[in-house]
Write a structure and sequence with these properties.
- There is one protein chain.
- This protein is mainly alpha-helical.
- It is built from 22 helices and six strands.
- The strands form three sheets. A two-stranded antiparallel sheet has the order 1-2. The chain has a two-stranded antiparallel sheet with strand order 3-4.
- It is globular, with a radius of gyration of 22 Å.
Length: 458
């Protein structure tokens, strides 16, 4: 017993005194989770390899990790699953009335399994660190593939739509979501103790490059929102001097990424924030039009009365369709994926997650989804007590970076449909784990203190 206790103490000390100051000792679980995250975030492997590739890789990597952590995942963790139970329960309830019970039950089971297998990440700082490392690996790897594509290796990266590049791992759409993920972390962590952190500069450059090459309006707005978010937090916690020093590095990188994008891509990138382009749901699903703008949907001759409709007829029509469906059956939905809108390429699910889930799974589904997406905001008070965002240290960078990832996930839901796939939920679960492992004291209290910068838990 004494030997075991001494070994355990030595293990915790090893975690606390690692080279990075916060990263734990890396065992086989760390490597498996890095591989899982990098593969899960390679969203379009399910197009180029196999539709179920992410389920296969997730089972292989996460099941052994889950089994190794099962003793620390007691009933006390059930509170994390409460919004998921409500969300999945609403889908199950809808199955009794939808006429597609087997499909609805499958969607509920998939989401539930995703969250269950992700539980170890939520309460183990070692595994959360591994998942975030997977984000970095996936971002840099896609940047390399894009560069190779520009140099002529079209098998790994090429122009896939009007002014929109993609790779064999991430096509336009999923590419921008990946690129935005590490942006705030890298920008907020550019300097430590007054010195430039080169690895974060490289990560920031890769993040911006990947997002810009995607060519979407969502990516351009994401970079704008990310810069504003990081600058505001920095000004609040670190002051004007530190903020201007950071922006002096970020803004030139943004300008260079736009100006040196190949072909006419840079022209589209400069104007797409204000005008419509190939970011309509049809374009992002393989129905890009020849002039790069949204295809028109018949609206019965109605006068364009909103800015949204003028920018994107298809998306505006989807919102109207979803609203009509919600008004027709606000309590119980019609079944997952049943709320569709006619487009030139055929019926398409509504690209607005909040209204889509309300129409498909009813009011309880909408409440459950919103609880999942926004429930992490309750972590802000304890995070601010435990982490000093004004310090130039890893813990502060992770809080800012993870918070922006979660805000971006909530914002992207305004433009994309709901999903029951690993590639979508991983962009939410990884940043959530980065915050939970700072708030939680178990199972590695020493590492949690390091992440908080030595602050007490209460």
């Amino acid at each position: 017993m004494r030997l075991s206790a001494k070994w355990g103490q030595h293990f915790v000390e090893t975690l606390e005194h690692s080279n990075t100051g916060i990263q734990p000792a890396r065992d086989w679980r760390w490597l498996l989770v890095v591989a899982w995250a990098a593969l899960a975030l390679s969203a379009d492997l399910k197009v180029f390899v196999h539709p179920r590739i992410h389920w296969f890789t997730s089972v292989i990597t996460l099941v052994p990790v889950f089994l190794s952590c099962r003793q620390t995942l007691g009933l006390g963790r059930i509170r994390f699953m409460a919004p998921v139970l409500l969300y999945c329960g609403a889908i199950v309830l809808t199955a009794f009335f939808s006429g597609q019970a087997s499909y609805d039950l499958l969607q509920a089971a998939k989401v539930a399994l995703i969250f269950v297998l992700s539980l170890p990440l939520m309460f183990n700082a070692q595994l959360s660190d591994a998942a975030f490392t997977g984000i970095k690996v996936a971002t840099v790897l896609n940047a390399i593939l894009l560069i190779l594509g520009i140099l002529g290796v079209e098998d790994v990266g090429r122009l896939m739509a009007v002014n929109r590049w993609g790779t064999i791992l991430n096509m336009p759409g999923s590419l921008s979501r990946l690129g935005i993920l590490p942006f705030a972390y890298a920008a907020y962590g550019l300097f430590r103790k007054g010195r430039l952190v080169w690895k974060n500069l490289v990560l920031l450059a890769a993040s911006i490059f990947v997002a810009v090459m995607d060519g979407s309006r969502t990516a351009a707005l994401g970079l704008l929102l990310g810069t504003t978010f990081v600058a505001a937090i920095s000004f609040w916690k670190r002051g004007a001097k530190a903020t201007w020093r950071m922006l002096a590095m970020v803004m030139p990188l943004l300008a260079l990424a736009v100006l040196f994008a190949p072909g006419e891509h840079r022209v589209a990138q400069l104007g797409q924030v204000f005008i419509g382009n190939s970011t309509s749901p049809e374009a992002s699903n393989g129905g890009a039009t020849t002039n790069g703008v949204s295809s028109e949907i018949s609206n019965g001759g109605a006068t364009r009365s909103s800015a949204l409709e003028a920018i994107d007829d298809t998306r505006w029509g989807m919102i109207q369709t979803a609203l009509a469906a919600v008004l027709n059956h606000p309590i119980v939905g019609t079944g997952m994926g049943t709320t569709t809108h006619p487009t030139r390429t055929g019926p398409m699910v509504v690209h607005m997650a909040y209204l889509q889930i309300w129409a498909d799974a009813g009011l309880l589904g909408f409440i459950g989804y919103c609880w999942i997406v926004f429930g992490w905001l309750a972590l802000i008070p304890p995070l601010l007590r435990r982490v000093n965002l004004g310090k130039e240290e890893e813990g502060a960078e992770r809080v800012v970076g993870a918070a922006f990832m979660l805000l971006y996930y909530a914002w992207v839901g305004l433009f994309h449909p709901i999903s029951s796939e690993w590639s979508e939920w991983a962009t939410y679960l990884i940043p959530l784990s980065m915050l939970l492992t700072i708030v939680e004291d178990e199972p590695m209290p020493g590492l949690a203190r390091r992440l908080r910068g030595g602050r007490p838990s209460h």
